[in-house]
Amino acid sequence: MRKSTKPAVETISEPLRDLSALPAPVRALREKILAACETGDIEALRIPIDWNEVRPLFERGARRPAGADPIETLKSLSFDRAGRETLSLARAVLSQPFVRIARGPFESYEWPAFARRPAPPASEEEARALWSCVRFADLAASNADGRPKVMRIGVGADGVWHYFWNAE
Prior knowledge:
Helix content is 31%, strand content 15%. By secondary structure, the protein is an alpha+beta fold. The relative contact order is 0.19.
């Protein structure tokens, strides 16, 4: 039997707000990240980061040495260099609607939904929500489609935290 060389088709749900639609491991990770954000201490993110066998990706194409401390990476990416911006962004991102992404048999969840399903903000409140998910360093930049570089958090259905980076 020959395996297909076609890439798996990706389907993206409509934006979802109902957290009960999330698998239990995804809900647990989201809650752990939000609890870390509430402490105001970037070091508290070490617990949800270390839940993974493999650390989440925090930047694209980075050439950090093997074994680099993820908290130091997050601090270096934070405008204040202490991680407060990172915590604020994670809280803002996880407070937005999310989407379910299916690629073949694999399923993941991504926040905020508007990073995957862009649409002009319908209200001033939606515009504020969008801009609350953009790093200070990216405020003047835009992605290839001319939209703000919104931070995204992606989590597999098994509760594995895959990434926290901006939408290129």
